[in-house]
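Troubleshooting entry. Yesterday's outputs looked truncated, so today I'm pasting the complete records for two proteins to confirm everything comes through intact. If either block looks cut off, that's the bug. Protein one:
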Amino acid sequence: MTQIVLLGDIAEINMGQSPKSEFYNSDGEGLPFMQGVRTFGRIYPVIDTWCTKPTKTADKGDVLFSVRAPVGDLNYAPEHMCIGRGLASLKSRNNTFLFYLLEANKERLISSQTGSIFGSVNATILKNFKLTIPDSAEDQDKIADILRTLDEKIELNRQMNETLEQMGQALFRHYFIDNPEAEKWEEKTLGDIIDLRGGLSYKASFLSEDASDMPMVTMGCVSGKYRINLDALKRYTGAYKEQHVLNPGDIFIATRDVTQDRVLIGSPAVVPEALGQVICATNLYKVVLKENISTEFLYQLMRTNRYREQIIAHAKGSTIVMLTKDSVLNYGLRVDFSSESYKEYIDKAEAIRQAIDINSEQIQTLTTLRDTLLPRLINGKVKV
């Protein structure tokens, strides 16, 4: 059985308030401070500002909710902290259940925001927001445990992939940067071994919510950290050409960036095996091989500091920076694809890649399961 409640009836809502600027510091003095207007995700946020005279605070484990654009971002307070006016902290009998309850109703909460340019929700909106929850506190606790277990497994796989990615970079450095033999290899440019093709310019009217439609990777799929961000994957129903198709294992790179530290521009992403063929969208370059070489080699090359430094140095623009083909294709490297070093590297690198693919497939499966179960458990359509 379920019941309809108001958010203010089941949770204590504490709206953030920013202290005066003279009370901020970056030296770790006072309470950690967090403002809104940033995306949390499900991992704890990074704290880089502290406050010596806090106005509003959140306790460790409280649910943090972004009440200003982007409205709806969720996380837990990692410790006792000061919260600014872009955030609200919420406390209830079971904060984990509250977190998933808000997650399940996020779209409705977002649609309740006011303001045409910069949306926001106030305390009144939050307190009077209607929710459907299971009658039984025991059922609420079981639901929280199920969803938390799934998230913990997803996070564990992500951490394993981060470790594997670090191993992949260390392996690449060993064979192609720190290896004295590399000095004897022929000097090439990336243009000798790859070409770049622009992605599909599409109309929003051809985007779909149907998971059976053709998947399309967008610029948001490039994270600069992970092999691919599947949260930004879209579905497409319009026309496209073969030149816009990517196969599993293919690489695509971002051609635009608005981040301050330029982490996205020129960064590589890889189509996972489980995804199958996808369309490469605008603001991306599809990497086309001229030689029969490993895309794992290319992926790791495009993540090295030297490559990143050249791409950033040659980026055009100020607020929005753009990537030129030449800055990629003229990048110089030394490699001998017939050498024993290259062959040894590929054997080891492919083993790491396969392990990452297995973990990534599990992440996608568990994420789909969690997102499918979430609203059905909360609304009582699936019994626990």
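Protein two, checking that the full record survives here as well:
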Amino acid sequence: MDKPALKIEHFILCFIVIIVGITIFLSMTSPIARAIRNGEPVNGLLIGTDWVDYARHSDTLVFVNYKPGNRFLNIVSIPRDTHFSPEGYHFYKINEIYAYNYKMKKDDHFACRQVCQAVEDLFQHRLNIPYYVQINYEGFKKFIDLIGGIDVEIEEPMNYDDSAQTLHIHFEPGKQHLNGARALEYVRYRGKSGDIGRVFRQQRFLKSVLARFRNPLLIARIPQFAGIFLTEVKTDLSMWDIIVCVIELKDIRANNIRLAQLPGAPRKELWIVDYENCSGLFDKILCSTAAVSAAQGPKPRIEVWNASGKPKLAEQVTWLLRQQGFDVINYGTFSTRQKKTLIKDLTGDLRGAQKIAEIISCGEVVTRFDEKRYMDVSVTLGEDCNIKSGQQAQ
């Protein structure tokens, strides 16, 4: 009677040994796993495309830099209207690169690689981009549904109708839970602020998506994620690379995510890159310590603007920040009201802006690097800021 039991035990032991062996082999051969194990940065490009086969184009471009040593994630959004006109081509915008190369080869992988090279050129080859993940509209919807949807707060009515593209977007203000289809409408919407407003909305959405990965139950859905990646996603990452990335994402803290935007300014229908500010931002990304430590030397210079409609709120916040050692140079009333508080880190030293958010108990922190800045942090107080007169910092 003991022999069958012994055989079963041997079978289970052999199965475990095989699984462990396969895991070790994949970990040794995976470039992502090897980079994480050695503490080397990982750079990649997230490319969102539409589903039109005859004229497919990149609707979203996001550069991602991950530092495994301190689990710090840099997210740099590249406006799709960014001016890019290399010699020998008739491009004017960065999003035309994908469309042109896909039309030439009808090959998503080829088009993705050309986009990566174009962004490297745009970055003046300060950063290499060896990896890409391209996802279309259908894949995006399936992915959001699989992680259980995303909670967002709509700050103002969002209405857009385009009968030619059968695109009809309508959102009312308030907290909403978005499934895949509604999430796609949310990230595609372009309001009065154009592509810059959409970039900011997409960054906040992406941060909410990353927060979803902290749910350990998602590990059980890896086979379903694999199905989406095999059918709807084009990437040069192996399935094991993707699993490694998912496991890493669940351990990233919100304060270790920098949301940045490619420095520049709008000019007519184009986004004109500010290469001097780009260089400064890339210095921060490449630096191993500045990205995750508060600025050293003189106290950061702060400006505070009241966009909440609440009287004397800027003065109250100024008093509170000065109590905590911040050098508030200027404060006043903003020209228009806004729902949410926005804290702009203008130096690339994220912790100072994050500390301000902790003190006032509100605020979305974003990096908008400015080499010519007079201030280091710009705080615009929205209706969500509830500082009371005489309040002490926690």
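Both blocks look complete. Sanity check on protein two: The first helix runs from residue 2 to 29.
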